[in-house]
Amino acid sequence: MFRTSAFLLTLGTAAGLVLSGCASSTPVAKATEPTAAPATATAVTASAGPVLPGVGLDPANIDKSVSPCDDFFQYASGTWLKNNPIPAAESRWSSWNTLINQNEAVMRGILEESASNTSATKGSNLQKVGDYYASSMDSMAIEKAGLKYLQPELARIAAVKDLKGLQTALVRAQRLQTRSVFGLGVNQDRKKSDEYALYLSQGGLTLPDRDYYLKDDARSKGIRAAYTTYLTNTFKMLGEAPATAAKNAATVLRIETRLAKASKDRVALRDPYANYNKMTVAEANRLYPNLGLTAMLPALSLSSAKEVIVGQPDFLKEANTALKQESLADWKTYLRAHLVNSVSSALPKAYVDESFRFQQVLSGAKEQQPRWKRMLRATDGALGEAFGQLYVDKAFTPETKVKAQEMVANIKEAMGEHIRGLEWMSAATKEEALKKLNAFTVKIGYPDKWKDYSALNISRESYLKNMLAAREWESKDNLSRYGKPIDRSVWGMTPPTVNAYYNSSLNEIVFPAGIMQPPFFDPKADDAVNYGGMGAVIGHEITHGFDDRGRQSDAQGNLRDWWTKEDADEFTKRADMVGAQYSAFQPLDSVFVNGKLTMGENLADFGGLALAYSALQKQLQKQHGSNPRPQYDGFSPEQRFFLAWAQVWRTNARPEYIRQQVQTDPHSPAQYRTNGPLMNMPEFYEAFGCKDQGKMVRAQNERARIW
Fold it and tell me: Which residues have C-beta within 8 Å of that of residue 38, sequence separation ≥ 6?
């Protein structure tokens, strides 16, 4: 995602299918032990049709030594898992990676063609994309430049002489998105979605989560030691003596640990009401005078702001105290570390390698990604909609968009029927739910209105210079929304992205062009495969509008309680059952899934699969009526639907990745995303002829179902 999107996600306004940028890997732990006896998949359609060769699923990936009723993840993908070990440069390997690699091959072709075009019209998207990628791939120029293009920023920090100068440096840190001390950005007001609001949120950490600083287990200590080594070596490369470098590394870790202690954990950040504290700028300035808001806001062209929404008041209180209490020299050390760390990929190879050595400890990856892959992603992140226009022209067809629109309409219709059929929900709440569903905006492929990059200057002079310019442009672009009408055309992902999301403030579901490819969507495949893949993705994003957080916003995207107390209690009872199920899943020794952190994504998986299944049944009825339904590769449409679902999530992952995922990611590990919903679906039991003794089968009173 864009760097600013990460800020928006901390506000709780967007929920995606997967976290962008998560690396992956180790043989994933199994949800259940496989049985020794081979299983037979029993088709249960009332009248089986002709058996035809299928498209979109490869039966060779199935492990027939495992019963589908005992461990569907292993049954559906066991042979694929054995035959697809994790590449050295990855921390996981999944069907997503296969698609991402294919997608990146297309993207690479576009970028290399753009970079080779030195006569593109100055100021055009082609020129900017080509020059950005060319400068990022020019490793000789980067080595030769050394720290030349970073020196002006280092000099700004060195020139800080007092608290006022420190506040000015924090303004610059916001512009350059170095994640220093706190986050500041503009987004829709959660309670007045027709207005933009200014948000202040916790920030300032480098490690993936506050708990990495606070836990005393061996792994957490090892990560802190590796981080300290990384900082020490970075300071040495900046020219400091070993003893000074070590002292400065300890300073950075100490300040970040102080901020971590005041930070809310990820479960607490899921409460939209607790993280919405609106106050006047004058009041915020009285509470947090050392942040220097009265000088900061004009410097960020936000002079007109009279109110601010503070996400985490206790954190800002501690940050305010620390800004005065910690020495100026220590804050300058902290700011230098954040600056250099945030741009290490644009510095000489020694900095890149040092950063990777630290990342290895977090991810478990054995080798660095090839430079072209890293720079491709950097170009997409910096110039996503300029690059996106070039990508869409080459890789996305109007026919794909039409098919996706049809699937969305079918699955929305299924959601309406599910809502109307709920026995536990009152008529009043159903009316509000349907109003919200009918108000959904659907975005597919690419923006109707592209971003205007005309104010952004990109050249082949310096990759670092381009990187900083792009960040500053993006920050200005975000802050410039303040005081303007809501722009409902904005996207939080770039067109080539293999992902999707729901944005509660805009009440929209968004599917970039990148995800409209196999294994999610295959125009040559039968409907069962497409509904088990892309259909479940669409249903997932629709359900996010009604998950434990999404349900707290109304049709206009406002944070408002539209539930009767009785209905809210019934929802919570069912959601708690899902949470308890997932908290019992154990991917590694002593490592359990956090059912509260993953609640929204688990509910979206449950709902998405149920909606897609219903929509498929309607589609099959339209096509075949009471006639026998064709079987492909010997599987019924229902079986192919569930196999397609499992195909999407097949993953090998390293232990380091799983540990980080469980601690920081709102998405459950892949095997539980596959099996978790199926263990609650009688439709799955029926499709594969599961009897009561199957390990995937839950007793009726233990099954969770909400939507």
Answer: 64, 65, 67
